[in-house]
Each structure stands twice: as structure tokens, then as C-alpha cells.
Amino acid sequence: MRNELVQKLVEHQGEYVSGERLSESLGVSRTAIWKQIEVLKKQGYQIESAPKKGYQLMGRPDGLQEHDIHLYLHTKRLGQSVSYYATVPSTQAVAHELAQAGEPEGHVVVADEQTSGRGRFGRNWSSAAGTSISMSLLLRPALAPENVPPLTLVAAVAVTRAIEKVTDLEADIKWPNDILLNGKKIVGILTEMQSEPGLANVVILGIGINANQTDEELIHDDRNQSTSLATEKGELINRAELLANILEEFEWLYDAYLKNGFKEIKLLWEARSISIGLNLEAKSIHGTVTGRSVGISEDGALLVEDAQGITHKVYSADVQSKN
Ligand code: BTN
Q1: What is the tens place of the pLDDT at every residue in 119-129?
Q2: Which domains, and CATH codes, for the chain?
Q3: What is the pLDDT of residues 220-243, one digit of tens each?
Q4: Of the candidates 223, 219, 237, 133, which has an alpha carbon nearest to the alpha carbon of residue 183?
Q5: Which residue ranges make up the annotated binding site for biotin?
Q6: Distance CA 264, CA 280 (A)
Q7: Buried b or exposed e, range 218-228, using 16+ CB within 10 angstroms
Q8: Ligand 1 in contact with 119 (CB < 6 A)?
Q9: Phi, psi of 290 (to 5 degrees)
Q10: For residue 110, how far is its CA from the centre of ligand 1 (angstroms)?
Q11: For the chain, is the Cβ count within 10 Å smaller at the N or the C terminus?
């Protein structure tokens, strides 16, 4: 009911809406409305109450709770239910547990802060409180395990499209899972699966975004310089709006991938990619390939041509440019 209440207050932003009207439209008592208003105030909503007039929303926190996200959400399946944590070790871990407990596809785990965020190759991922976005989306795609890795690329296209929609910033994709602005990392994607032979039952798509951090709050490591959307844009961004847009973009791209494969999405991916035509070194569990990236395959592998002219298909690797 709190979601609907926030929705109503937002619809009437700039004017008072009476407790009676709210209680009628939401089908609950005026006391229940008052109690929920008190909860919202504690969460940072600025709500004025005036006798005989009712309630007026004056300001909202930049929250990531279900009701914040639902204000902007226009999806059919993804994100209809959200588990929100003010702080959690890793949204990825929670999503895996929920999947095992039978939570259906589309559920999203969101946190304002992660204390042990996971990156690729067992690295840490830092998610600062109140300024980053940490989300894990639960999917049940019924794909063969080898068809799961391109979902990272599908997600990268969805995230760059959503960033452009919400901030007007044109982000670049670095194969397979980094999103950069002006050469600095703003988003990391981690795709994990629970599979049985021949079938990926569950995919947990983890997305970490540097949204509103200042430069001092960002952790720069020697592999990657980082930046945040706010630093690049010069103004704070609405995290819930961005998250909802990512789900909306991902929903149609995911459906297209399940129906038609990667072929069409590959064109969208290539248009945003900065990973083609580079001299690079790709380190994976299968070894290191050095050469020039000449494209991606229709199953999402990076094609690297070595000095002997042999083209290698690299499915998952840590890629460093060698120019
Ligand atoms: C990477 O670039 O190495 C991937 C980083 C992925 C981080 C996200 S934040 C939400 C989700 N929860 C985690 O613990 N990790 C992913």
C-alpha cells in the first residue's frame, strides 16, 4: 500500500491531497494513511500535513525502494517485485538464495550499500552507501549454458540505452561487461548461473553502477580508472529512474534474444562498442590470447586475430589494450 500512497502523493505533487481522498482511493483507513505517512517521513520524504487540507509531498529522497522504482517502472515482468536492502553483503548472494527458494523470474534485489560486493574473477566491487546502484536480476531463461554469456552483452546494451535515455550521456561498451564514459568505468556487469547438464535454470544478472559518487568517493584501481554518472553529467541523477529504465530496456532486449538469438542485438552492441580494432591481450582460464580484436561472433565471443592470422574465439576474459 505504501507504493500506491507514494504514487498518489507524486501525482498530486504541488498540491494538498486530503487524508479522506487517499483513504478512499487506496481502500484503507485514514489512520492507516497517517501511519504510512509517518514511515515515509522517517525514510526522508518531506511531507507537509495541514489540518483540513491533508498531505502535500514537498521532496523525495533519492531512494531505491520498491515504491521509488515503481514510480518509473513500465515493464510487464521484470522488477514487479523488489527486495530492497539498506545494506547487504552482496545482492548477488541474496538473489541466488531467493532463486533456490523458488522466487520467480523478474525479481530484483537492490541495495543502497554492499559490504562485500562481488566483481568478476573473484574481485571486490565497491558500492558506496546512498550513491551507487547495486542490483541483481533473477532470470529463469531455460537456455543451454553456452547461450548464457551473451546475456552480459544484452545487458550492456540495455544499460547504455537506459543511461542515454535518463542522462543524455553516450556510454561505451568494453567487451564483455564494462561500460565506460570518457574511458573510465561507470558500470560493471556480473552474470552468474545455476545450471544442470544442458540447462541453465537460473541466471543472476548483477549490475553495479557508479551513479552519484564524487571523485573522492570512487575507488580507482590500477586496471581501471572509474568515474560516476554525476561526475560526468555535472548533476545528480535519479537512481530509481535509471534502474527502472534499465529493466524496461532489458526486458524487450532479453525477449528478443530468447526469441531470435543474438544476431539483431549484435548490431546494437557493435554500435556502442570500443572493443573492435584494438591490439589487446585477453586473459582467461584457458590461457592468454594476444592479437587484434576483429569483431564479435553471433554467439557473443570476441574474435581476436593473432600475429599468425589465426582467429580465436574468446568467450570470457579479462581484456587489456596493448597499444
Ligand atoms: C565487474 O565489473 O567485475 C562486475 C561487477 C558487478 C557488481 C554488481 S553490484 C550488484 C551485484 N552484486 C554483487 O555483489 N556484484 C554485482
Answers
A1: 988 899 988 88
A2: 2-59 (1.10.10.10), 66-272 (3.30.930.10), 279-321 (2.30.30.100)
A3: 665 568 999 999 999 999 999 999
A4: 223
A5: 114, 118-120, 185
A6: 26
A7: beeeeeeebbb
A8: yes
A9: -115, 135
A10: 12
A11: C
